[in-house]
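Dear Dr. H.,

I hope your travels went smoothly. While you were away I took the liberty of generating a structure for the chain from your last submission, since the lab meeting agenda had it listed for discussion. I wanted you to have the full record in hand beforehand rather than looking at slides cold. The sequence, exactly as received, is reproduced here:
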Amino acid sequence: MRHIYSLFFMVLAVAGLSVAQAGTLYKWVDSEGRVSYHDQPPPEGSGYRVEEKNISTGKKATEDESLKNIVEKYPVTLYSVPVCGSCDLARAYLQKRKVPYSEHNLDNNPDLQQKLKKQIGSLSAPTITIGEKVMKGYVESILEGELDGAGYPKNEALENVGSNEDKEKASDSGESGYRPARSRY
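The corresponding predicted structure, in token form, is as follows:
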């Protein structure tokens, strides 16, 4: 029974560590130079000099802020129609790369069609806008370059897709690496 209590308290301690790692740390320095560290700022008028440090372990928070700024500056919009293989490929690429985007269906929406014609001079699907840049049709390498140029982060899984190891495995097994999108039979 004693071991169960010990295990229980260890689990609580580990759970508490993850909470303690995030937040703000305050360094209090009194008039004589003595230093103490606290999770709260000192009371007002106490005479302590305070240094504040954010100790969150979150590289994620800065990545989220960076992505938020990119999305505000270069929003991605996909104009598509329901039965469109290129639209499906563009959508799949944006989702795989985890790019936040909005999608507008051009089918049976004459107002949106007119807006798009005014904006880019013609009506085609898919049309992808990244900020002010317009891409008619879908070519993965061009879309990738435009997203990279805007500063959207690359997905690690995408970077490894064309790695030499994959090419070597395909050549060793006698495969060409070609995969048809759909079967014709």
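Two observations you may find useful: The chain is about 45% helix and 20% strand. Residues 62-161 form a domain with the Glutaredoxin fold (CATH 3.40.30.10).

With kind regards,
E. W.
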